[in-house]
């Protein structure tokens, strides 16, 4: 708008046919393009450009947090999600151009905590008071790009950034990372935990590689062993031969 590039956010409803649980795969449906229904915009005129939007991990899907420039905004979706009301907010304070790059909403602690990244710092916030609960200064040597919480293990948080590293933190003691991965040779843009097996971590980087790492030592099952289908079928074959 007006020769400026604005980054905005909105809430949309997907067509009924595409909702989970429907038996048709997308290929089976007719070639008619389904249109999304616009429910509401998240008004950011007063707060700046949106960096990211997060649904509350558990709950009824009525709460959203957005990060806009240096603001954390908690939205309440009302009237069948057709209206977003700003229920609380907080702002980053300090010197220089403070802007959020990304954030994640923790599925633990009754969904009362989020983690944000700005510049080289990772911060934890309590969504009830909108106050900081921890701060990891210089979590990475350069810009922090992405964060993800371990879905099965409280307090564990992964971060990645332009220093080519992926780091794992225990948010109760943020003096040192629990573990550091240095597999990539360029900026690491994304880090994601596998939701079933939290020892599996996927990272994507501008070194043109996606790496799947097996971090058993800091997983929720450090002594567990993932059995894959091949192993199972091998065992069954052996049993058959023995019989």
Automatic annotation (TrEMBL):
Intervals holding WD repeats: 137-173
PROSITE patterns: WD_REPEATS_1 (PS00678), WD_REPEATS_2 (PS50082), WD_REPEATS_REGION (PS50294)
Gene3D superfamilies assigned: YVTN repeat-like/Quinoprotein amine dehydrogenase
Stretches for region Disordered: 222-243
GO biological process, one term: protein ubiquitination
Keywords: Repeat, WD repeat
Superkingdom assignment: Eukaryota
Domain EIPR1-like beta-propeller: 31-212
Pfam family, any one: Beta-prop_EIPR1
Record family assignment: Belongs to the WD repeat EIPR1 family.
Name of the featured protein: EIPR1 protein
The organism of origin for this protein: Chloropsis cyanopogon
């Amino acid at each position: 708008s007006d020769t400026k590039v604005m980054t905005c956010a909105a809430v949309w409803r997907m067509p009924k046919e595409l909702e989970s649980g429907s038996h048709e795969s997308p290929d089976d449906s007719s070639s008619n393009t389904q249109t999304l229904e616009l429910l509401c915009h998240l008004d950011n005129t007063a707060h700046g450009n949106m960096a990211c939007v997060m649904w509350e991990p558990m709950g009824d899907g009525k709460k959203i947090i957005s990060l806009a420039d240096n603001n954390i905004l908690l939205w309440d979706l009302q009237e069948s999600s057709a209206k977003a009301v700003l229920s609380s907010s907080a702002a980053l304070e300090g010197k220089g151009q403070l802007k959020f790059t990304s954030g994640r909403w923790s599925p633990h602690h009754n969904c009362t905590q989020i983690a944000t990244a700005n510049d080289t710092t990772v911060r934890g916030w309590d969504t009830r008071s909108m106050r900081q609960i921890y701060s990891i200064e210089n979590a990475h040597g350069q810009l922090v790009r992405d964060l993800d919480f371990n879905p099965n293990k409280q307090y564990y948080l992964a971060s990645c950034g332009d220093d080519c590293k992926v780091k794992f933190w225990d948010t109760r003691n943020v003096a040192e990372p629990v573990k550091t991965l240095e597999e990539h040779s360029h900026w690491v843009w994304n880090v994601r935990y596998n939701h079933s097996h939290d020892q599996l971590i996927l990272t994507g980087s501008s070194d043109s590689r996606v790496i799947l790492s097996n971090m058993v030592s800091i997983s929720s099952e450090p002594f567990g062993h993932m059995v894959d289908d091949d192993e199972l079928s091998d065992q069954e074959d052996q049993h058959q031969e023995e019989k």
